[in-house]
Each structure stands twice: as structure tokens, then as C-alpha cells.
Amino acid sequence: MKKRKETIYKYAVIFDSNGAGYTVTVPELPGLVTEGDSLREAREMAKDAIRCYLGALLKEKALPFSKSGIHRERIKVAV
Length: 79
Known about the structure:
Oligomer: single chain
Order of helices and strands: EEEHE
Largest sheet: 4 strands, antiparallel
Number of strands: 4
Strand order of the largest sheet: 3-2-1-4
Structural class: alpha+beta
Distance between the termini: 17 Å
Mean pLDDT: 83
Helix content: 25-40%
């Protein structure tokens, strides 16, 4: 089986404290919202959500576009 080349994408991620944990959005990926009980869990949930979002875009051969926009981090996600 041929090994697929892995591409690393970087996105600004916003972690918004919601009292019970963190709500996560990615301005460059409209509609992507996830959450976690802790910042660590929210970070992992964000990586998984981005991976799924990009997987769907790549299947449709539509590439993500760029934008940006409370607490911002860059998260590396391999697809």
C-alpha cells in the first residue's frame, strides 16, 4: 500500500472560557465549533475537529482559506 504524504496545516484557534470549560472556534474554518472541560481537552478536541473538517474538504478537493481572529494559539494538525 502506498504511503500518503502528510501535510501540516496551522490555524489560529480561539479558546473562550464558558464557565464549565472552553468553547473552541477556528475563524478560518467557518462552522467549526468544539469544546472541552479543560484547556488541554479543548486543544485535543480542536485538533480532532480540524482534522475531520480538513478531511472533508480534501475529499471534496476544496482547500481551506485564510482569515484570523480572545486567547489564540497555533495548532499543528497532520492530515
